[in-house]
């Protein structure tokens, strides 16, 4: 049964909470510090989510159910080997396979053909046209590559290069017309570009070879079973279901990103915890006389501790909430003005970060609160 | 029955080389509605006696009875409850809580004593009117003058109708006229409520109000 709190208890709690409140300037400083730390951690998390979200979105959007890679290659981001392109015929003959398309991938320098200082090295995916597996799943503007003279690049890359649809680009020494701008293809360290397969063979000098074979299965066919069949036909290749391949790519991204993310998250938490600890320390020292009087008048140490911890929780929540709000504003602003920095904020991340900051703040408050509990009420009698 | 009875109370304060015999076999009884003036020089043990009476210090020897309870034998939680319900405090400097308004300071004491909100509010309003400080209710305590602060402290000490008020040099930091006015208000309101008052002071302005004077020197009570 829900306990009914007498009104006098509520009044007492309200008054105690007000009595132990820290000075406004210090409270604002602590809120700003926690907000800044929260923003830092959320931005890092959002950048991580953006990269993982980008690679997942692309891999899931290619409509490929199985990926065939050169032996020793298990992801799209870091690979250098090639497969004989005519292995596509062998794969096509495997029961359950509906379609097979080769793609080429290579890092290629891209710049506006009209000249200028801007230059970007893009992870270029060359796919069959029209509508080949491996083409960008989501376009922000324009259309897919249809001919050998066309290219699609990620919107962040377009922003970096200062180009829009219709512009002519120098792609690895070839002049191609920008016909589309893709979204969800920003890996932060680089972005994706998309070109026609045959033209890429010429540019890269990779005739008869493919970086990957993308396989589309017939309806109601199990991908694991077909992957096993393909592996049996091509023992020299590595074969992955879509789920496995996505996981491999996410692992590759996480390997470089997560340690840095954890380090900076820890630093952010430490800074926030120190700020909260200092605030509570200052509060206990500032209000020492008041706290002694409260204890002398009959106030309980437990009630005072609860009030101080409640105050700390309110400050941390205000700070973390402000940080979360600022991250949202920053995300929208960057998306509009600087799409190069792609941030993907998630509500769950915000909730977890706020909870972690709250726990860190309360932990940091523990030591000063212990000092509070040792205050001698006799101090109230000192003139 | 006495509100406060102290029998053969001794207390050493400090440790080792700094140990001081603050109270020596001190005995004292305060009757309901009585105003006892505890007089003695600085360091004579006045404040220690008040602290022992309030259960803030535990005597090394002797007994302390407050409103029928052996407060020296009670656990801290019960002592706190007894302090909140049975005692009012007026300190040398008013010691109002700086984050609260004058009215909130008084309301908080009332809620600590267990008064319900309506009773607490009406008792506070009544005392503010009696003390002539109704207009100060919404002011933060750090915006009050010394005399105003001490008036609010008197209201805080009496709002929950305690059995006894412990006052430690309540007029020492006030000028002559203000000190006298505060003393008059404290005494008249306490008497009107039947509260006993134990005042530790060497301010002669309080002597005319005392029913009884008790001297203390080197921790020994004379005429308790």
Please outline the major beta sheet of chain A.
6 strands, mixed, barrel
Please identify the structural class of chain B as seen in this structure: alpha/beta
Radius of gyration of chain B: 17 Å
Helical coverage of chain A, percent range: 40-55%
Total count of strands of chain A? 12
Succession of helices and strands of chain A:
HHEEHEEEEHEEEHEEHEHHHH
CATH topology of chain B: Rossmann fold
CATH class of chain B: Alpha Beta
Quaternary class: heterodimer
Domains of chain B, number:
1
How many beta strands in the DSSP annotation of chain B?
Answer: 10
Number of helices of chain A: 10
The profile of the biggest β sheet of chain B is: 6 strands, mixed
Strand order of the largest sheet of chain B: 6-7-8-3-9-10
The most extensive interface between chains reads: A-B, 29 and 41 residues
Which stretches of chain B are poorly predicted, pLDDT < 50 over at least 5 residues? none
Estimate the global geometry of chain B from the Cα principal axes.
Answer: globular
Structure overview:
The complex is a heterodimer of chains A (383) and B (224). With 383 residues, chain A is α+β, with helices and mostly antiparallel strands. Chain A has two domains: 174 residues, no CATH class; 164 residues, no CATH class. Chain A has ten helices and twelve strands. In chain A, the strands form two sheets. Chain A has a six-stranded mixed beta barrel with strand order 3-4-9-6-8-7. In chain A, strands 2-10 form a two-stranded antiparallel ribbon. In chain A, a hairpin with a 7-residue loop joins strand 3 and strand 4. In chain A, helix 9 runs antiparallel to helix 10. Chain A is elongated, with a radius of gyration of 29 Å. Chain A starts with 6 loop residues before the first helix and ends in a 10-residue tail after the last helix. With 224 residues, chain B is α/β, with parallel strands linked by helices. In chain B, helix 5 runs parallel beside helix 6. Chain B starts with a strand and ends with a strand. At the A-B interface, helix 1 and helix 8 of A face helix 1, helix 2, helix 3 and helix 4 of B.
């Amino acid at each position: 049964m829900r306990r009914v709190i007498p009104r006098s208890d509520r009044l007492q709690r309200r008054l105690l909470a007000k009595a132990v409140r820290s000075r406004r300037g210090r409270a604002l400083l602590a809120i700003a510090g926690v907000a800044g730390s929260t923003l830092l951690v959320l931005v890092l998390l959002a950048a991580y989510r953006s990269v993982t979200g980008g690679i997942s979105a692309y891999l899931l959007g290619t409509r490929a159910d199985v990926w065939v890679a050169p032996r020793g290659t298990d992801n799209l981001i870091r690979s250098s080997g090639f497969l004989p392109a005519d292995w596509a015929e062998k794969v096509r003959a495997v029961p359950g396979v509906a379609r097979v398309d080769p793609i080429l991938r290579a890092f290629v320098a891209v710049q506006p053909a009209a000249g200028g200082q801007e230059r970007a090295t893009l992870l270029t995916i060359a796919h069959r046209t029209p509508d080949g597996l491996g083409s960008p799943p989501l376009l922000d503007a324009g259309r897919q590559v249809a001919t050998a003279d066309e290219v699609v690049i990620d919107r962040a890359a377009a922003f970096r290069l200062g180009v829009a649809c219709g512009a002519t680009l120098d792609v690895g020494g070839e002049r191609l017309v920008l016909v589309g701008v893709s979204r969800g293809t920003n890996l932060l360290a680089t972005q994706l570009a998309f070109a026609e397969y045959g033209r890429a063979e010429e540019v890269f000098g990779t005739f008869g070879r493919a970086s990957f074979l993308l396989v589309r299965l017939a309806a109601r066919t199990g991908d694991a079973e077909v992957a096993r069949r393909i592996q049996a036909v091509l023992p020299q290749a590595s074969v992955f279901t879509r789920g496995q391949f996505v996981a491999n790519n996410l692992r590759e991204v996480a390997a470089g990103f997560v340690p840095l993310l954890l380090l900076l998250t820890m630093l952010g938490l430490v800074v926030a915890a120190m700020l909260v600890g200092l605030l509570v320390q200052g509060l206990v020292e500032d209000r020492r006389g008041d706290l002694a009087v409260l204890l002398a008048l009959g106030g309980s140490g437990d009630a005072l501790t609860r009030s101080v911890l409640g105050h700390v929780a309110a400050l941390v929540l205000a700070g973390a909430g402000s940080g979360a709000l600022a991250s949202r504003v920053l995300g929208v602003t960057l998306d509009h003005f600087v799409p190069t920095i792609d941030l993907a904020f998630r509500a769950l991340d915000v909730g977890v970060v706020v909870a972690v900051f709250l726990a860190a703040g309360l932990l940091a408050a523990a030591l000063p609160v212990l000092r509070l509990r040792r205050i001698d009420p006799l101090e109230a009698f000192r003139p | 029955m006495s509100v406060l009875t102290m029998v053969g109370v001794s207390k050493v304060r400090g440790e080792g080389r700094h140990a001081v015999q603050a109270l020596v076999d001190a005995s004292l009884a305060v009757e309901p509605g009585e105003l006892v003036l505890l007089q003695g020089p600085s360091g004579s043990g006045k404040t220690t006696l008040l602290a022992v009476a309030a259960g803030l210090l535990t005597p090394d020897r002797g007994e302390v009875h407050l409103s029928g309870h052996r407060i020296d034998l009670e656990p801290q939680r019960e002592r706190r409850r007894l302090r909140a319900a049975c005692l009012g405090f007026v300190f040398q400097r008013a010691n109002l809580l700086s984050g609260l308004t004058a009215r909130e300071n008084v309301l908080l004491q009332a809620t600590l004593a267990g008064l319900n909100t309506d009773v607490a509010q009406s008792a506070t309003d009544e005392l503010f009117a009696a003390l002539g400080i109704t207009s100060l209710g919404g002011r933060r305590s750090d915006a009050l003058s010394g005399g105003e602060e001490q008036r609010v402290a008197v209201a805080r000490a009496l709002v929950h109708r305690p059995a006894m008020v412990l006052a430690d040099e309540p007029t020492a930091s006030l000028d002559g006229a203000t000190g006298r006015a505060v003393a008059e208000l404290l005494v008249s309101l306490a008497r009107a409520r039947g509260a006993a008052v134990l005042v530790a002071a060497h301010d002669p302005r309080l002597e005319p109000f005392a029913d009884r004077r008790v001297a203390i020197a080197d921790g020994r009570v004379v005429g308790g």
